[in-house]
Amino acid sequence: MQLEFHQLERRWEHLSVRHPARQRRLLTSLAECGQQTPIVVVAAEGQTDRYVVIDGYKRIAVMCRRAGS
What we know:
Layout: E1 8-9, H1 20-33, E2 40-43, E3 51-55, H2 57-67
Parallel strand pairs: 1-3
Antiparallel strand pairs: 2-3
Helix pairs in contact: 1-2
């Protein structure tokens, strides 16, 4: 399934620990190899076309930054 950034609810993102050096390595890896591991989501209750992110917050953050979102 392909989703757009605006469809993702990142309500638990604030719980992630940020490591700038790791984020830079992740950005490099995504640029060179693309996304190898899917982001895990579940449908948001009572909302069509909205999904709650379960796993993949760091990948989303890096991809949003890369896309300029």
